[in-house]
Fold:
Amino acid sequence: ELFPFRAMSQYSVGGVMIAHLQVPAIDPRPNRPTTLSRPVVTDLLREKIGFEGLIMTDAMEMQGVAKYFQRGHADLEALRAGNDVILLPGDVGAAIAAIDSALTAGTLDQKQVDASVKRVLRAKYRLGLTRPQRVEVANIRRDLNRPESLLLKRRLIENALTLVRDRAAVAGFDNLEKANLATLALGDTNRTVFQTTCSFYAPMAHFNLPKNIDSAQAEYLLDTLQQHSAVLVSLHDMSRRPDIQFGLTYSEIQLINRLCERTTVVLTVFGNPYCLRFFDEVHTVLEAYNEDPFTQEIAAQALFGAADLKGALPVTASPNARYQQGISKIYLSKRLGYDLPEAVGLNSDTLRLMDDLVAELIADGAAPGCQLLVAKDGKIVWNKAYGRHTYDSLAAPVTLDNLYDLASITKVAATTISAMRLVDEGKLDIAKPMSAYVPELLATDKKDLRVDEILIHQAGLQAWIPFYEKTLIGLGRPSPEIYHPVAMTCYEIPVAPNLYMADDYVDSVWRQIFHAPLRSERSYKYSDLGLYLTARALQNLNHQPLDVFARRNFYRPMGLATTTFNPWQLGWTQRCVPTEDDNYFRQQRLQGYVHDMGAAMIGGVSGHAGLFSNANDLAKIFQMLLNGGEYGGRRYLNTETVRQFTTRHGGSTRRGLGFDMKESDPKQTLNMSELAGPNTFGHTGFTGNAVWADPDKNLIFIFLSNRTFPSMTNNKLVSGNYRPKLQGVVYRALK
Structure:
């Protein structure tokens, strides 16, 4: 128990308060609290431990001390014990009289009192308290909770968390694509910080129960949870009192131990470690000691391989939970963690300027809401949702688990990384003509176009083709010969709710792509058509669609919980932020269906558009790229391939292979903040998105919005230069 005092004494802590304790092992006198004990204050703290700072009493008006002494005499005893400061005497006048009398009689050492006075004066001079001070109370809570202090608190928590045992060897969750996870919070019926943070790492179901669980609830949960490969159980609202089983109920203890018989349980205890004696049979146990929000957040990160585990138990609770027990788990390749901006050299106050900018863009009508994420050095330090799904004041607020239509970010977050994978496997040669992989091009003017020319948008392809226009009649309504309101034979391509396109019209779309005339020159011209072709090449090589390949090789292993094509098929329509009120083609609100008309007409999965995601999942893809193709202990791409694709291609001022980069030609319009590094790569999206990764700063910036709502003709996001401005704030926040 004395170790913290010895340690802090060595580091010159300014003061120590003596508690009113009865410790017979040090001072056996009856009714003699440690506050008034010279063996404690002087012999132990001052001389044996060597503490040189201020020693002060606890409040002397407390009856645990005052009732055993005459008025003022307890204060005198406190000075005799060696205290420098007497706190809250019950009777100040009586205390002064007793001390004066003792000094006169010589029963209180004047030299000792003088030494205490000098310590007090030294402290006052050091702290600038030699003249009256006025405390400014405005913003005092923020001033007291400085980022540096909060950062220290987080580091303390990280070092204390204790992996007591891991018989199931699940800590880190190496194979997320094979995991079917759920969380169960006991003692808190609201979604906890721990549960929310766990969901950042993988798809999972969440369950909550009160402390008293009836038998019907228990049976239902047991039947439901046994279907999951692992259940992350967390204990909340605990107590320090052993007489009430540390706040645990019999039904909680019984449910956990019964669940262990049916599936793998990962138990996190947000409370007293002595309660571990109830859970000796649990496979994996993490002791977190308290349920502070920081602790819950960091505990989830540690279980998913984003924070190391180093702690050891400070007590023995049971034969399977003994003093100093604890598994050290150091993750060499971590998943993205979550921390304060100061942890990675960013200034919180500066980053908060983004809040004002976002408020401005929403008020300006540039977008009804957005998600904004900043990650540096493998830590997400800003992940916020703003505004609402639409401009309707009753519309749902944007949350972090909402999905946005990524539009052209699909080009890099699905198509390009999949192409990189095939380059690694030797199946795709970017120096070969695209016709080697898409045979339909052999009989066209595109037979000699190389893959790399297409990926850098220098192949002479047209920008895009408005395929849908030929399928409309009258005042822009879908032709009944091409579209049907219900799915039926020959009408199975869903372009929107209750609107299905004729199957054979997909061939018409592809014929238009194959035979669209080339431009006369091969200068840079951004084109969607090249990515249609790239996705078709990948499907021919893999014998599976782009969405299936990307999901199996990237999204599921990386624990991406929201990244998908056609989210409406998963029942996620309401989780998706509406993209547009389409009054020119599909004649309805687009939500969960791809906004891009061409992508919709080939089934919602295309190389240039169709992917949906939230900012958190998108950050994982780009952190993998910044890591040279590795993420969470697994290699997805070769480092050389990542370097090749994310390096500005010869002859281009702003394009890598598939990736957009910072425009290097001063005569051209800058496509990101001027403060961004020259090697920054990423992409923007038509619907109002941007993702940029700066390898020199190990920095990721993501902005997702639905600027196209209610109409895609709204260009205020671009004209207001909001995305570069927000990105610029991040660079100015770098210390």
